[in-house]
Structures are given as C-alpha cells and as structure tokens.
Amino acid sequence: MHMAKGKLILICQSGGEFLTKDDNTLSYEGGEANAVNINHETMFDNLKLKLAEVSNLDQKTISVKYFLPGNRRNLITLRNDKDLKRMIDFHENSVTADIFVDGKVGFDHDAVKVHTSGDGGLKLAETVDHISGDATLVAANNLKNLADTILDSSSPSLTYSASPASSEHDDFEYKPRLSINVNNADQSPADTVKKRRRTASWAIGTHGPTIVAVSDTNNNNNDGNTRRRKKNTPRRSSLSIADDTLSDSDGLPEKLLVTWRDCISGVGQDFSSVKEFREVLQKYAIAHRFAYKLKKNDSNRASGVCVDEGCSWSIHASWVPAAHSFRIKKFNNSHTCGGESWKNAHPARKLLVSVIKDKLRDSPHHKPKEIAKSISRDFGIELKYTQVRRGIEGAREQLQGSYKDSYNSLPCLCEKLVEANPGSLIKLLTDDDKRFQSLFVSFVSCIQSFQNGCRPILFLDSTSLRSKYQESLLTATAVDADDGFFPIAFGIVDAENDASWRWFLDQLKSAMSLSSPLTFVSDMDKGLKEHVDQIFENVHHGYSMYHLIESFKRNLRGPFHGDGRGVLPGKFLAAAHAVRLSAFKKLTEQIKQISPNAYDWLDRIEPEHWTRLSFKGEQYNYIVQNVAEQYIKLMDEIRESTITQKVEAVVHMMSEVMNSRRARSSEWTTTLAPSKAKRVEEEGAKSCGLRVFISSDVLFEVHDDATHVVDIEKRECTCLEWKGSGIPCRHAIAALNCSGRSVYDFCSRYFTVESYRLTYSSSVVNAIVTSSGKDDDDDDDDGDESGEVKVYPPKEQKRKKEEKVKTEDPDKRTVTCSRCKEPGHNKASCKATLGFELNPLIHRHHLAARLSLKTPPPPPSLLPSATTRRVSILIDHAAHLLVGLSFSKNPSNPTIAYLI
C-alpha cells in the first residue's frame, strides 16, 4: 500500500528501552505510543516541539530516531528538515513509521506560546476527556486542536468529542463535525489513526440547516464493528485527520460559518443601510445552506423568499426614518424545501471577492482551481471557473490595486526614483494614444560601480514580465570579481523586437561613458550583434554560452555513432574553451564522427563569437549560467503584482544585492575574491614539483609534461592558459614562487577584493508609490486639466501558442533505418519511397497488374544502376502471371509489346 499524497503516520514511542535480540536486531520494550500525521511540508522544529509535548520531554534535550524499512539493526537520527524529508521518502511505500523519542523529562509549556512558526504540515493535538451529550462550539483559536487529535495505544474503547473551550459560545446550536472512535485496546496506534474519519451531514430543522455529526452509534445494531456511511451525505462535507493536511488558515472558514450562522437574529434587528442588510443576508444563507431571491430590492425596502417554490422561508426589512436604520419587520425562518434550494445558490461577487481575498492574503499564488476546490470544501459552494477567475481579479485589485490603473503611477514612481537617486537615467515612453511603450531605469551608482570595479563585460538578456499585456523585461548585467551577476540597468517594453532593443541600447549608451573597449554577450538567436555594432563603437560581441548550449541540445538530431548523443554537449563546451587550434579541430572532428548533423550546426556559427581561441574581447565563455535566472525567479514570484510593484521589486532586488554583498565582503581577509582565491590555490597545488630554469629576470623555462616558457612581464605562458584569463597558470605560479614574487600581484585587478568592494560601495534607494486605485470609468478623463500625466496600459495582444520543443533524453539511443538511412524509425516502419522497389516476391504481382492495365513499368532513369539485373528478373516473373503479352527483357530498355 502506497503512502497517500506524501503523508505519513508516525508512531511516536517514548519512555521505553531498546533490547538486542539474538539476531542482533533491536526491539523497543515498554513506554507509551502516540500517533502523529506528517507530510513533506512538515518542519522538523515543529515536529520536535510536538513530540516533546506529547512525550512530556524537554524539547531542548529531545532526540528522535527511526529505523530504515527492513533494517532493525541501525538507528537513524533526525537532526534537521533535510533528514525529516529523507525519512518520508524512505517510507514512501508505507502508511506508518515508528520513531523513538528520548530526552530529559519535563516539557516547557512556555515554548508553545512563543513558537509562532505554524504547524508546517503537522497534524497534532491533545486528547481530551469524554463528554456526555452534545459538545458545544470550540473557541476559534482552538479549532485546530479540535480537528487534530492524538490517540494513545493504551486508550480504552471510548468515543471522544471536543470539550468546550469557552462559555461565550454556549448559545450556538452547533454539533461537532468530528468524533473519534477507538474500538479496542488491542489495536495499534496506526490502526487507530486509520479509522479517524467521520462525515458531517446537514439536517433541516426549525432554525434552518444545522451541522450534525454522524456517530458510530447509528450502526450499533449491525453485526460486528462494520460502519456504514450514509449514502446521501455530501462528500465535500467530510473531514479526514489522517489523510487531509490543513493549513494554518483552515480554521478561518469554521470561524466565518460560526459567525455567519447567527448574523440574523430575527424581527427588530437593525442595520445601518440596505447594503449592509444584503451582505449579512448573503452570509446567513451560506452558513445555513439555502438560496434566496429578493422580490423587492431598493434603498428603502428589501423582501426575500427561498428560491424553492412553495418554501415558507421569507424575510422583509425596510428603512425606519425615526431610528435611522434598516430594520427587519418580518422573518419566517422555517424551511419546507428540505434544503433543495441550496443547489441553486450563487454567492454575490462582493462576498466571493471577500472570501478569496482572505485566501490570497495567506497564499498569493493560489490557482483558480485550487480556490474553487477550497471554497467547495469550506462552504459547500460549487463555482464555475470564470466566477473564481473574476473573483480572483477583484480580490487582487483590492489587495494590490488595479493593474490597469497602476500605469498611471509610473510617472510618479519615475520622479521619486530620480529624486532618491540623483544623476540616474530613468525614461518613460508612451505612444500617441498615451499607452505605455517602454521604460528604462539605470542608477548612477550601478554605472559608476560597473566602471570602477567590474570587467568591461555586459550580458544582454530578457524575460517575460508575466502580465496579461505581455510586456518584456530587458536587462543589462555585469560580472563582479567573484563571478556574481551585478544588475546595471533594466527596461520594460510593450513588446520585445528590434525596435525595442535598439531603444534600450540607445538609452544604455547615454547612461555610460566608455573609455575602454566593451564586450557584449547576448543570445545568438536574438540577433543583437548588428544593433550593438551600430550603436556602440570599439566593442566586441560574443554569444552567450548558456543559450548556445541549450540551442545545441535542442538541435541535436540523429543518427549518433560512437559514444552517442550524451557526450556531445561536453565536447562542444570543451571546444569552446580550447586554447589551441589543434585541440579545437580534434574536438570538432570527434563531434563530426558522432553526429554529422551536430557538426554542421556548429560549423554555421562564427568561431570568433564563441571560442576562446578566436574571440578578441574580454574572456567570458567560462560563464555557462543563465544570467536572466534571477529576474525569471523574481517575475515568477510576483507575477500577480501590478507593474509599479514589479518595478519596485526589481529596484529592491538591486538594492538588496548591493547591500548584502557589501556587508559580506567586509568580512573577507584575502587579497582575491573567494572563487578566484580558490582557483589560485588549485593551480598552486598543481605547480608543486615542476622544475623551473631561470633564463632572465622575466623569462623562465618550466618543465611539466612538456617544456613551457613563462614571460611574467607580458603575463604569458606558452601553455596559453594565463593569457586572457587573469589568473596565472601552474607554470607561471612555479616561476613566480621561484623568483620570490607574489602570485597575487600578477592576478587581474578585476578579481581582487578591493574591486569587489568598489563594485558594491554605493547603494540604490528604492521608492514606493501606492496605486491610485481609481475606477475604470475615470480612465476616460483626459487628465490634462489637472496636470496629471495619464499612462494607459498597452493593448492586449493575443497570446501566441508557443511551439513545444521536444526535449530528448541525451542518453537515449536513436534508431536509424537501414533502408532509407534516416533516424527515428526502423526498416519495418519505413514509409520512404526509394524509386522502384525490386523484391520479386512482393512486386511481381504489382508489375503484372500494371501490365494488365497497359501501363509501362518505370523508365530505366528512375531505377538504381545496381539493380538493373533484377529488373529483368522481375519482368520475367511478371510475364508468367499474364497471358497474351510478350516482353522485351532487355533491362536497359524494358518495353511492352501487345499481341493483336
């Protein structure tokens, strides 16, 4: 039996001791056991605290251990979240697992009060004494303890209900949704937990629908201990402890329903307005599960009846001028419809938005289907996808402001960013219709830091802004001394195309003052080389290795030979890093032998834009990470935010990068940045044992597997590894050590801690602008009279269906047809037409049929030269199948003579 949905029931044993059996396996004797339900979201600290509580142990001294499945000899210790998740994975095919808890006796109850991190997927609460009769409502803050219950293995055969936690709710006619039955003391804790499932049902009474528990006593007249569920019980009302995992906010629907059940008390109740009366009535109907309609509905009166024809339920309220209130005048709270009206219930949009808003506040990335399922479970309301989607839009608009209206806040945001960061270049561009077109943001602190502390390399990339208007985020990113990505500038454009990229590069040039050649790196498929060359002078352009490797993988097509497809990306990268032409040719020749198609694709890319051997700019191709990854993750996290919030989030990220790295570098004590210092250490270790011969003060001869000449003045070695890398090779380090010089003095200044600190010496100041939150009707105003700059969102574009790129397993062998020599199929399934097929056993009947229709065979020009002899044989076979025909069997001139 497989563990359901990643959940596991832990049998927590404590107070006993381990005994070793004759076969060296361990057994646990004595103590007590409790059952706990966990899943992959359970945090170890939460589990540890709960285990200490139920076992009455000091949580600071507690230790938790378990056995691997099938191994009772070695105990595994749980120390952190990683260990806990690993244990769950080990028991993925199990329903239960034994854990053993030990520690100092005495639980610190104050720790529970200060532990506010939430349950983290842990379902646990204390058992309570048996209460005879109906249980009253548990206080809101104890609802979780009502639902999550621990059963002890020594418990007698009793039915437990929740004890009252507060007397202030005694007037509620509420029945517990859950009861727990323990059949007998012989059952294991796991068996007990498995049975903890009861279903709530709805009963129609004089006060409307009420919740009642389905008790096991209903089945006492059955033979044995068999329990049956009522067939008419709605499945969505069921509640499972062992199978369901509730979040920390799952108590909220319970609290709402309890509050809504009594929100209408009867005749004489006053409301401030008809609007408030409608809202309260809607909640009351949901809590009591019926649907109504308003026959009279205006500012002075409102009359409602049950939607089920013939039902006696009705309510009437009207405005009382003397009391300045909206008062209930008539109220018949008796339903005769049997609850059938609930099938037609449709909540008001405002109420739906309110409920969804609470859910989004706790988890902003809830999907419509998840919310619809949650509302159905919590309130019993079945909603259409479009209803939920519109409700989500309304809820997000209330939480974050209108996405559409947020464009109007862009001018104000730009102005505040310039005020907070004087000297920065921030430009906002709109079209003739005042629709957003593009935004460019470059802070002066970032530009100065780049020019003072970073290598002259800029990566150009883009990602989606994740909005319904399909804007794109364009970025320019540098690399710091520790090979970390440093944001320089970003732009938002309505569409990514040649024009938007040219505009972005124009603004980038305006923000920078170039004194040395600059190297740009971009995705080859974007075609930015031409734009860069036209806008910037004295620059080099390289293709991003990350995008080249990904494109190389996508374009791999069989057939593959030798080592197969899996080694091709590695050989491609090795060819890019080759420092000698002979090594480059050797690697590309190996690629050609494995896959001629891969070699042809590689041959079409100019090597001066991606190989270390031919590239003239700053070396960059050792960077194989996705530069845009940090932006992609950020946009995914805030995909539902408005455009101003997204701009603020990017600025905040830039500010955090500078602040956090500045603080981190203040603790460094080395000369080089950590990644570069590590590389020097590795090269230094390889230099041990090399023989060095001094030719002059600057020239050295170093003997390795081969003899190399090191020129420390030019910072070159004949191994070619030092040139362009900025880090001395092993031969250079051996020569420097021999001459008593410091290796760090011959490293590139761009790799020093000093350069790193210069890069992050300044700061970016963020500015927060709240959305105006105006109604959509205000968009029609011109806005010029008040002096306010209006910015409208870009026109919505039809989403293009992205072509799904079929990603193939690099280790998968590609089948090649032995007939047509094409990959992807074999000879048996080949459908290719290869001229004239010459299998006499199959095709002589076909030729005979053609001859009987007086259709000549194919001319010799269509026949393969190697098969002309078989043509004669084939015609001879066909001749025996026909009568009254004679043939000329000359294979070079097959003819047909018809007898008259």
TrEMBL record:
Biased composition (Acidic residues): 775-786
Full protein name: SWIM-type domain-containing protein
GO molecular function, one term: zinc ion binding
Cell inner membrane recorded as keyword: no
Region Disordered, residue ranges: 210-246, 770-813
SMART domains for this protein: PB1, ZnF_PMZ
Biased composition regions of type Basic and acidic residues, renumbered to the chain: 793-813
Organism: Phtheirospermum japonicum
Domain (SWIM-type) ranges: 708-740
